[in-house]
Fold these 3 entries.
Entry 1:
Amino acid sequence: MPTAPQESPPPKRRVRAAPRLFDGQDLTDDRFFGPPHGLFSRQKIKAMAGRKLIGADRDLEDSQFQPASLDLRLGKEAFRLRASFLPGRGASVEERLKSLEPERLSLAGEGAVLEKGIVYLAPLLEHLDLRPSLSGAANPKSSTGRLDIFSRLIVDGSEAFDEVPLNYRGRLWLEISPRSFSVRVREGSRICQIRFRSRNAKQNSLFDFALPDKDIRRRHEASPLVDGDLKLREGLIVHIGLSGARYDIVGYRAIKNGNVIDVDKSAGYAAEEFWEPIRARRDGRLILDPEEFYILASREKMQIPADLAAEMAPIDPAIGEFRVHYAGFFDPGFGRGADGRPNARAVLEVRSRDVPFLLEDGQPVGRLVYEKLAGAADELYGATATSNYQGQGLKLSKHFRDYRNA
């Protein structure tokens, strides 16, 4: 008898691999890094870490992820330099560093004191493996600026500070130079922060991503960005606030013979030991002395919408020979009051240059430049314990207890 034909086994069903997730996001989906382009918000920076575009010698901490930036941490050592430098095209930071024969400082354990007036260079714990469409821009943290610590990011092959080029792969280094106070730092201390920008092919050669004035005006008309009149000049014009009732404190000037400040110690120091208060005058004036460091505040209150970020631009030389606010990004959500209106002043770090300079209440001192996010942030400034300056008026860094207003 003929043998009955045997049935073929049913074809095996291909089981689709489960998507690799990071913080609930599908990291296998390239569309997450596609349009719309712009600055990355917190969730996209987290996805970069999940895809190893951001790596670190020590696990990243959740508190490093800010609404539109990532806090960077000092590594295990620092080097005392004779002079600042940039490596230049085709050269590495490490090569240039060796040629300077620097003195090494260990930042392990209790760390080391960085003396004011000296330049140091420290490798960071974080490193990058960016894509051709991604670049980075760094800035000192707000608390760093308010301590008058001058810091700048350096990468291999760089010809400019604080810039990470498209497709960069390598280590990150931080130049640090305390100006008014000597400071103690250690491995893991957070001095600066970085933003990441996604670009399309047409934007690869661009350097200016600022929101145009006409768009700023449109946004202000829909929901106020400042509590007063909107003044625009390639960004929002910021004015100095020096008026107040008699004896009101309108600013602070650094006392340069203060003790060492531990950058990781919050509310650990009496403000009067480090800062001289500046009281309001009837004429609303203040003379800046050359090379003195001041903490002042804007006259206007402001807020940053959830889909924008901002940065204080360098002062226009036509306005005056002094420098204002060289630290800190303005994250989405900054200054938003409970009623949805502007509720925070910009604290300004001010240094006059070569000659005394007279400031008057209401004088323009800088420009707040806005830039679009590549999608609204999933967490706004003020929502976490690390938001030290939400709703601020004139405010020193988090390291100081309130000044005695007496």
Note: The radius of gyration is 24 Å.
Entry 2:
Amino acid sequence: MSGPGERANGPDGRARGPALPEAQGARPVLAIVGPTAVGKTAVAVAVCQALGGEVVSLDSRQMVRELDAGTAKPTPEERAAAPHHLVDFAAPDAPLSLASVQRLAHAAIEDVRGRGALPVVVGGTGQYVWAVLEGWRVPEVPPNASLRTALATYAAEHGVAALHARLDAVDPASAAAIDARNVRRVIRALEVHAALGVPMSAARGRRVPPWPVAILGLTRPRPALFARIDARIDAMLAAGLETEVRALVARGYGFVLPALSSVGYREWRPYLAGEVDRDAVVKRIRQSTRRLARNQDTWFRRDDPRIRWVDLEAVALEDVVAEAERLVRAIEAAGAAARGP
């Protein structure tokens, strides 16, 4: 049996985070959010080591096997330093609905808390993060392949604005919340409406999760963040991103799949078709990744009072970890006071 501070093995034989005294009670959830390339993984690993935590990843692309060079997955060293959940578990063509991700994330969080460890939710995929933290009631509507194909064809023929207008006609609330360029989300909202006969916005609700949450937001000045994005893209290219994309396509995985329609992968489609050169691909990846970082700001707002923002250009890593610990300890102290003597 593992004592305090020792690693405990789970039923699957994987090393777990440091066991903690039972007297500490059930742990809260710490979420670490922020834009792509800001440095969430390094902070999460350091926090897990300091506070006895385990990472629950909510990055949509890092969940997919075989997408390695273009996704900045945690390295083997980082995974050895802190246990990671929901990384590398889905096939490239596996349907990953919001409902299924939420269910898996909740199960992972309960597993981690049940062993007295701190769940550290890490993600830049805002929809996943808030669905988990806010307890969204997500409609359980299975994918409709024929409808998706028809709607994607409609968008290709008439434009994304025309498809978005169809959504606005039946579900204006969802249309207002979904960017017309995010064709996959527009299609999903139309799919839910077709299946349920009611707008997706009306089918949703919220069920407050049974655990308290602290949210640490990581940021950097835009020039510094963009420099890190460029450096990451250079590293991805050097790691064989083009070779990886070619191999996935050769195995029959098409660019219509969510995995290959994501940033860093979809930009290769015109190149493989002989329509643009490699320099154009790299330029588009840089542009798309910067746009992604800006879009993430709409999910994680600087004026959100629930998020404690830290500028990673202004403080040392140990100070960030100390701030995370303050957030967690404050929630634990409040919980202990509520329970009484």
Note: The chain has two domains: 7-137+207-221+299-339, 145-203.
Entry 3:
Amino acid sequence: MTTDDEYESDTQSVGSVDSLWGNEPESVDFKDGWQDEMLETVDALGDRKGSSMRGREELLKSFVRVASLKVVTEDMLAARGEDLVGILGRMVKGGRSMKEVSLAARALSLLAASTPELNSLSISILPLLQQTISHGQTDLAPAALIHAMASIAFFSPTLTSIDIYPIIDFYAEIIQSKGHSIGEDEEDEAIAASIEGLAILLGVLETPLEKLKSVLPILVNALSSSSLAVRLAAGETIALAYELAAPPSESDEDYEAESTEPLIYDDIDQLTSLLASLSTASTKKMSKNSRREQHSHFRDILRTVASNQPLPTQKIRFATRQELQLDSWEKLLRLKHLRRIFTHGLHVHLAANTYVRQVLDLPPPSEPASVGSSDDDEGMTTAERRTFQKEVRRLRQGRVRRDRRRAGEGRMIDVFGAEEYE
């Protein structure tokens, strides 16, 4: 994936996007018989006799790698899908190491995003994950299980808003109690994961307004966390909440002239003041890079909350002549969640995974779902791959930081006025 070279610095920002691409895409040549090898791995996972912890870890690692870099369908699993879900559930519940539990959770997330039609994901695994997390059995991999739970609920074709409400409340309790509700006292990684999971689930609710009102005070409190990851996750979710609660456009046929933006947080002045402080905060306790990241994120967040400005648009190119336009907080947070699931293989799934393309408002894939990760399969030539890597390096250097700073200063003036900002 590459960014658009011709973005305008005063209207667009990559501050919330470039952090997604921490690693270059992995280029892996699979043998022609990779599907047979995958099925052998699935069969081996189901054979518990004589299996060692290390052996299970290696099998899980092999499956995760294939499911990340290939688009696995239910047909490819050859009627083993439901059995595999059950096997992974047992590994989550009885895993002997952090690596085993984390890989099992990751495998469940991959299945949720590639084969959501497997009924046991939402029927049996979702309650199992919540029960495991609730009973304080998450010492081995709390964040991975929380993300897996969110992935299943998000992609499920059968869950309704009523089914998702309790999951959002579950996450909100973890955030509000700072992890105490699940025996993870002050565990920042689990708290950040709960905020991120809550964020993507808010976007699938048919009528999110009441739920937004209930979770916003919890998210505002999380802005005071000592963890940068928690602060950023809370800030982005607050921006998402205001985006979801925004009134319809005047071009909407159902728009009424007297319609006003719903009040979803009582003290907007206190909130914007806090966001402004985070967008300029400077302390020796934070590294230079952390300060820069916090400032750039919270400038965009403040702009959305204070003046209902959308997320600065960023275009991302992938495969051949395909483009994803990030123009909303909802789409950005969904893309971040997909990045956590697929890591190096995200570009493959953007090009060929029907469910991934659907949640990002992309048209159905033009290539068969069996598209893999070689250059021919994913439609990314060697030259395009070099261009992508060059662009990532460019983003890490000073050009974008300067543009982001100028754009941020303009947004602060938009919010507070030139005299007050100065």
Note: The first helix runs from residue 34 to 46.
